[in-house]
Specification:
about 450 residues; alpha+beta; Phosphorylase Kinase, domain 1; Transferase(Phosphotransferase), domain 1; 20 strands; about 30% helix; elongated
Amino acid sequence: MIENERLLPPVLADLVRRMSGAEAEHFTQSDLSSVLLGLGSSVVSATESLYFEYAVVVGMTPRPEALAARLRQLEPLGLCCAPVVVGLYTLHDVTQVLLLRYPCSAGDRLVPVDECPGPVLHVHRARFLEDLRRLHDSGQWHARAHEGSAYWFRGTVSGTLVLADWSALCSLESMDDPEEVLGDVEETLNEIPVFRGSEAGAAHLARVYTDYLRDPRPTRLPELARALVDAGRGLEAELLDAHLAGLEQTTVQEGPFRGRTAYLAQRCPTGEAGQVWLDPEEMGAAVHTGTTWLSTEPVSGWQLRAWRDAGRLSFADTQAMLGSPDDRSPVVNLSPEEAESLCAILGKHLPSRSDWTSARKHLTDDEFDALWRDPIQVWTADRLAGAPEKRVRASRITSAIDPAGELRLAASLRQMLADPGTRSDGVGVHTARTPPRG
C-alpha cells in the first residue's frame, strides 16, 4: 500500500482496494462513476470530483499519469492550495484514476468558496496569495486561478483556500499576460464578500446564547463561537476563539479592526482609543472611542431574543422591538426611554454625541463606517435643550459628518422627541460603558 493510502477514510480505502486488488480487472469507469455518485462527491469538472479533502481525477492514459508527475514536482514548493498524489490506478478499460489529497485541509469538506459559511480570514487569503506567488516564481501557473473564483474551494472547518482542477497546470510563459495574473487573483480575493451570516444561523445563535445565559458553563463557549460565525459575527467569533485558547489579549486578525489590540478579560479594561474588547455582558465586541467603550454594532435581534428568553428583560412588548424576523437585524422599534432602560439592564448607558464625535476622531474611516453597517440612526443620551432638570432624554443622530468633523443631529430631533414614549422603527441602539480609571 502506498504510504498516503493509509490516511484514507474507509469508503475511499474500499475504492482503492477495488481498483488495485482482485476486482481490478472487472472494475470500469462506469463502476467508478457509480461509486462517486453514491459518495455524494462534489463535481468540479467532467473528469474531477471532490470528496472531503480528496480529489479523484479520471481520464484515459496518459493524462492523469502526466499530471501526477507534475504535481510531484510541485511538492517542494509546499503549496497549501495544491494537492499531493495519493495513488495512480489503471482500470480494466485502460482508464486511469488519480487520487489526490489536500493535506492542509485534513478531515475537511471542500466546498466552493462562495458557498462556504463564515468569513474568509485574512490569514487564509494571505496564504493563498503567497502560494500563488511561489507558483508564479517557479515559472508555472494554474490557468484558471485568475479567472474568477469558480475553481476556488474552501475547507468548511479549516477555512483553507485551495484550487481544484490542477489539469490546468501550465507554464507561466504560455499565459497571455503572465505579469498580470497575480493582480487578477488579488482583485478576486478582495471581491469575495464579507460573510454576513444567515437568517437560520442567527436564529440558532439566539438559542445557543439563551442556553449559555441560563447556564454559563465554559463548556458551552465552543458551540457559541461556531454559532457566532454562522450568524455573521466574525469579530466576536475570532475573539471568543482566542479566549478559549487561554489568551487574555490578542491582535484582531480580520475585518476593519484588523491590527488593533483586543482584550478578552471579563472585567471592563481601561484601554486606549481604537482598542477592542469582547464584552461578555452582551457577547459583542466594543471599541474604545477615547471616551467610552462603544459596541461595534447596534443591539441585534438575536441578543434581545436571548436576553428576553433567559429572563433578563422585563419589557412588556419585546416582540414589537424585534421587528424583523431576521435576528441579524438591529433592534429598532424602541422609545428613547426603552433604549436607555435596555442599556441600564446591561450595566451600560447610551453613548452621547461627544462619544460619537470622539469615535470619529480616533477611528479610521473603515472602522467608523463599520459601526454603521446598517443604514439606521441610533439613540444617544444627550440631554434635550430645555428638558426638566434630572430628566435625561435621548436624541438620535445620523452617521453623516459635516465638514467640521462633527456628527450631525437629525433635523427632526426636537419634534420627534416632543412626546415621551415615542417609538421609531428607524432608530437602533448602540451601548456604551465608561472605562475604569487607570
